[in-house]
Amino acid sequence: MRRELLWFGVVGVSAMLVHLGSVALILVPLGMAPLVANIVGFLLAFQVSHLGHHRLTFSAADAPVARSRRRFFLVALASFLINEAMYALLLRFTELDYRVALAVVLVAVAALTFFSARRWAFAGQPQA
Fold first, then answer.
1. pTM here?
2. For 61-72, how does the pLDDT look when each residue is reduced to its tens digit (9 = 90+)?
């Protein structure tokens, strides 16, 4: 699991850089609205994330690509929605600084994403 956690971090940072870079350096400067650019950035980063997790993080599971892609998209989308909800709740109902609240949310959602991806999205074929 230590190897998986290392690759999960490497792939996650890579996907985040693609997301941020595509939005901040390409899409918005070309005139795309930031909220629309964020969706496009998320979709681009998802490609990096799925490929990296399939080939590096969870490669030992030998999950079928098409199935893992569908499942991981659901995990990523759910993680994004949970992130937004948790962040909104912490900002509304606690005295935490927005940066601390975001850090708490990011760590919690990353853990949820890792275990959901490991146990479901990239799970190998059941043994017969």
1. 0.84
2. 888 999 999 999
